TrEMBL record:
Residues 249-328 form the Transposase IS116/IS110/IS902 C-terminal domain. It comes from Paenibacillus baekrokdamisoli. Pfam families: DEDD_Tnp_IS110 (PF01548), Transposase_20 (PF02371). This is IS110 family transposase. InterPro entries: Transp_IS110-like_N, Transpos_IS110, Transposase_20. GO terms for molecular function: DNA binding; transposase activity. One of its GO terms (biological process) is DNA transposition. It comes from the Bacteria. Residues 9-152 form the Transposase IS110-like N-terminal domain.
Amino acid sequence: MDILIERACGMDVHKDSITACTMTPEGKEIQTFSTKTVFLLQLIDWIKKHGCTHVAMESTGVFWKPIVNLLEAEDIDFLVVNAQHMKALPGRKTDVKDAEWIAQLLRHGLLKASFIPNRYQRELRELVRYRRSIIEERARQHNRIQKVLEGANIKLGSVVSDIMGVSSKDMLHAIAEGEEDPEKLASFARRTMKKKKDELELALRGYVNPHQRMMLKTILGHIDFLTEQIERLDQEVAQRVISDQEDIERLDSIPGIATRMAEQILAEIGTNIKEQFPSAAHLCSWAALVPGHNESAGKRKSSKGKKGNKYLKSALTEAAHSVGASKNYLGAMYRRTLARKGRKRAAVVVAHAMLRIAYYLLTRKEMYVDLGEDYFDKQKLGAIVRNSVRRLETLGYNVTISEVS
């Protein structure tokens, strides 16, 4: 095979050590470095000393990040390669050391780089992902409050729709502070909740002991802290994406996607998606929103979907569930798939459609235009008419159809 890269370096990256192999016309050299910053700087100097123009490493956990940051600063081309892609390449896997094997593949141009966004987007991703984890943690704390109330036989969740709403929160703080009178607790009801005052008095009559009051006070304090952190992260993210506001508005126009979700999509796929993903199909495959492919002798076999960007997939799946009852094109698609394949597959199908729509909106610089809830009915108008006539005839009716003039 022809050598495409004259001076290349391959790295086997671990938590505490890095084995690096340089291959140049002068020969091959292998060294091991610690992952501490001082030794990483020595690694970069060693690479520059050998005149390596390209560096490749496997994408193992998050251990590649500090190396990539330094390589970026020195303007050295790098490839972070998917381990699955490495395994698929034919050759000696056991006889050759990992770093040397990576360097050989790099020199011959056989490695395909994973999508590594620039530093700005990596930082934005980190913020958005952390915000999502805090929101999920807050939801867990809400469930924990419900568990504590059930232990005290307080049935507040049976009366109110949101146990952490304004009225409910005042009642919970009062319970945590020692208030036991159901009438006084029910008096915290506001607006439409006042109509349920009698039900609230019955629901708030329970047996709350000091342990449960302490638990409520602790959990409520934790929720308040998490809410403050989420608001702080919201402000930071909004400040960072201020230059991409038009793209966020385009994504926000898709049913089921709000501002936070739009920010997360943008953080995961970036703004210049045409450069990284040549088509919408490539993007959906990268996000693992496509079915697995296992075909042999012309027969399709059952197969799991491939692994992809789990953060983007879970966010879009959540958005897909939210449009299930909506009177629009995506809602109709969800219900149509739900009837045949169930909730989980319906969510994946709609999430796939959302990501394709997002790709076209961002690349064409357009706003979303809904096709309408009756889109699929119009597509199959003839079949609907025939089925309707057949059903009526089986019930004993003579049916005559004429178009409305």
